[in-house]
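Changelog-adjacent note: as of this version, every example in the card shows the full chain rather than a window. The one below runs 222 residues end to end.
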Amino acid sequence: MEVGQYLNNTFPGLVLAPSLYHQWDIGIHFELGSGMYQFKDDGSLNLEMFERVYNQALSIFKELFSNSDEIFLVTNVYRHKSDEVRKKRIKVYDRYIKNKDLKFHLRQESLPYVFDDEDADDYYTSRFSLKCHKQDFKYSLLIKAACNEDFPLKPKLGGSGCGSDYPDVFFINLTKNVIFFIYDDRGCEVIATNKETIYPLYIKYGDLIDEYSREEIDQRFK
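Full-length structure tokens:
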């Protein structure tokens, strides 16, 4: 089963893009690094905050994915149509996949731009997907790279810089029907088809729930 077919069957109507939580009824929005700021008083990066963010995101990932779970590792790369002729190959899989043979099973497809922008017609989404297991890729480094989106920190995704064209990585658990997405150092989203699947996460990491969403999330899990 390909990722598009899986999403249509399991998460009908969902667009695999940031703001998963707002598209699906069963989900949690977590805030990462709460109470800390990205910069120190002297203007330098607060690396202590980033370490906390990495550890929190990694803990949530480990709670959701076991070694036996089948995973779709999906990356959205956002490109201007004028760049299409260059077909620059993304390097996220070169850097983070342990089992190099798996790269031969990498699938790529061109899709409409997932964001509702005025100039959306000028862009498209290049989606890469790979079916694998947790132990097949360097998930701790990949999680750090997702958190580093807006800052000049390494590791990075696909040799990109920072900002709106930075690739988005989605971790899809096919065994448990859960999607985990880190949008940047500020937070992450978890959605599932079954409330009971992520209820332990709601209990264990309740202190990380985004305060603006807490009342709504509490209602969802009552």
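Structural remarks: The beta strands are 27-31, 70-80, 107-112, 123-133, 168-173, 178-184, 187-192.
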